[in-house]
Specification:
Length: 329
Amino acid sequence: MEKIAVIGGGSWATALVKILSENKSEIHWWMRQQDDVKHLLQYRHNPRYLSGVSFDLNYVKPFNDLAAVVKASDWVILAVPGAFVQNAIASLPKTAFEGKVMVSAIKGMIPDENCLITDYLEKHYNVPASHQCVIAGPCHAEEVALEKQSYLTIGSHDLDHANRFCELLRNRYVKANPLDDLDGIEYCAVMKNIIAMACGIAHGLGFGDNFQAVMVSNAMDEIERFLTAVMPQHRNLVGSAYLGDLLVTAYSQFSRNRTFGNMIGRGYSVKSAQFEMNMIAEGYYAVKSIFELNKTYKVDMPITTAVYNILYERISPAVEMEILKEKFK
Ligand SMILES: NC(=O)C1=CN([C@@H]2O[C@H](COP(=O)(O)OP(=O)(O)OC[C@H]3O[C@@H](n4cnc5c(N)ncnc54)[C@H](OP(=O)(O)O)[C@@H]3O)[C@@H](O)[C@H]2O)C=CC1
Ligand SMILES: O=C(CO)COP(=O)(O)O
């Protein structure tokens, strides 16, 4: 039986625990709230996220002790939003992940350092790239809970690890495929959240599907320009880990990033949108990191710039959409 640590108690962590435990891996599940652990042990479901999913406690072991969870596992999945990762794992010694395969389920970056999660683990915890995987692909936790057909891509420089992790995930409603473009899909997963936010803003302002379609096609060019500058490699950007994930996030009713953007377009402040959502829209943090990172690369990124200006420079969403409107073809 594979022993897997899952760090995080939100919706994506809950969906991954469902998939992996139903396939009979032993899950050591770290949640930050002791009350959630107690609730799970008593009632067999997460009280606050995807609470309709019930777990078999023969396979799912919830804990509040992070060090013990990591120590007991061969694979460690990080599933807390990027902005909180540093804090979440700060109590662990720098050697805690030695010999483990790290799997980032996070579609966000480390604020301030403006780096990918895998780069952060390599730099601060000495985890070699060969011992890292990322989970990508168009997949909303809510649809996993409903057992709707979904597709995941596991990125890694080590295709043996990626293949093994795919086997752990595959089931009746999840197909999983390996891919060697670890950094490309990690960056793309971050950037699609920014674009989904832009789509939500446009929708909130009253733009329709015609404009959104042009936004998304321009976004693919923007993503390609950025990836080519930062991580040049031949990649098929119409694959589901790239275009597919952008589409689901830009169009789905479940998308946090689109919902957040929609509220901003309708006139909410950032604070009130965050308060109302009660979940995390990674694009809010990511746009700052990508914008700052791009000061080095100087790629033409009009959509990212617009979202940054709206969220961090308090420029009116209507003004920024007018600029994009003129720029798009
Ligand atoms: N949801 C999805 O469908 C998918 C999500 N992802 C990615 O998974 C990652 C996790 O997101 P997701 O599960 O959706 O998150 P949710 O929005 O469902 O839940 C928020 C999570 O963030 C935690 N949190 C909130 N505030 C803080 C804080 N100040 N310090 C520490 N932790 C905090 C919450 O902990 P608590 O409950 O204890 O407050 C909870 O675990 C993200 O990178 C997301 O992009 C990837 C694919 C699909
Ligand atoms: O990455 C996701 C779906 O693939 C989740 O996107 P949201 O965080 O916008 O809901």
